[in-house]
Amino acid sequence: MLKHTIILFIAMITIICDPYPKEGKVYKNPKDLQDNTTFALAPLMTEQQVFSEAQQVIRVEVEWLSTTDTFRFAYAVIENSGTAALSKRTKNLDTFGSYRGQLVDTNNNAILYYNSLGTGQQYRKLSRSLTFRFPIPQDVVEFQMIAENPQTGIMEHVLTQKIDPQTIPVVKNSMTFNDIEVRVLQQATKLPKLIVNVYAEGYDTSGKNSFWQDAPKVVDRLRSKNFPMFEHLEFRGVFAVSQQKLGSAKKLGFPIPERDSFLGLYYPYWDDFGRWYHVIYPTREKRFRQNIGLVPYDYPIVLVDSSSYWGVGNFKEHTAIPARSSSFTYLLMHEFGHYFGLNEEYDSGGKTELAFAPGIREPWSPNITFLNNKQNVKWKQFTTKGVPIPTPKSYWTGSGPYGAYRGGYAQTPPFGKSYKPGFGCIMNSGSNFCDICRFSITQRIRFDLGLETKPFSFNNTQQCCK
């Protein structure tokens, strides 16, 4: 009996420690298994070329105080990291994100700009600071922050701070444009466009040539998977030398040492949520944001000089994957999906770091539901008449029909409450996004381009599956 109990205990520990579908169980792109592809590189961009369309923004950092679980205004600076798309999307309320910053006109209390980021209550512990970027207002404004209550999930005002644009300093960074290299990897073929920067992390001086062969793979794989709205994305590679490689996951003690790499990313042992060793977050949010902000950007994708199996994506924070993993395509697509707000659709692996507050009524992630409204499930227009909601697993034939199947959300409390559209999506272990996730990414990109006033609505299926 004791022997069987020990075996069962070990099996349970193994299940809990699984980060997400194991490498051998996920879709493998043949290119990933033996990739000798070489890419022709565009010339280095000049500083004038890089900043020809850049716009100045106010970057606000808010610090999370772990001892009191409250937020403190840290600082505001002006930097040249903005884009035309950012100036458009910040004019509209973003209903995604567990943390929202907004600038309010002090004369009439009108909200001038919005910016949202982060999935769930765990995000504040992983990043420890939150960053919001806004166009520069003309007069004194009030910065307000609204955050998901970590218990109830209700969005609450947690911080207010007056900001005078005339007194905000220009960012001072120890790195300059002379310390980086920037190349166009793929120009957008349709306007308006979003700038997707592929950043190097953990590459030392000898790794520069490797990065410039690794970075184009991002474009190659997203194109090969017919990524939604691909033609509106302009990809640029950004290289800078890191003094430290990522290495293996270790608990480095407290106070948390700042990682001496380009972006300062490391495994977040400081929040031992169960599988911290399979994601990486900034050791210092200030370093991370200053250095990705050396150039204009909309979406940051980080390639790490590593061949291990791990990956991270969090809504409007960052996407990071190992450059030479044998599951490169899967990790890129899956983690980039998280950046757009998609949640997990697998059912094992312990608690996801993308967990919402335990008391939340309905998560805002577009691909999971707690079915509080069975008659109007989020993706109702993708379901087939006659398919019951919730949907028994026996209805799934391999490619449909879409319904509301028990599962997803990893092994996150409240257990047994999460439902997903189906079983074939790359947000689980499939080879591509399902129609629901493709649609939601399309809507999100259209919102980020300023083409939609809402980031997500299944009432408009014209953009479905583009």
TrEMBL record:
Signal peptide: none
Gene Ontology MF: a single term: metallopeptidase activity
InterPro entries: MetalloPept_cat_dom_sf, Peptidase_M64_IgA
Domain of life: Bacteria
A Pfam family per the record: Peptidase_M64
Segments passing through the bilayer: none
Matching SUPFAM superfamilies: Metalloproteases ('zincins'), catalytic domain
The protein's name in its UniProt record: IgA Peptidase M64
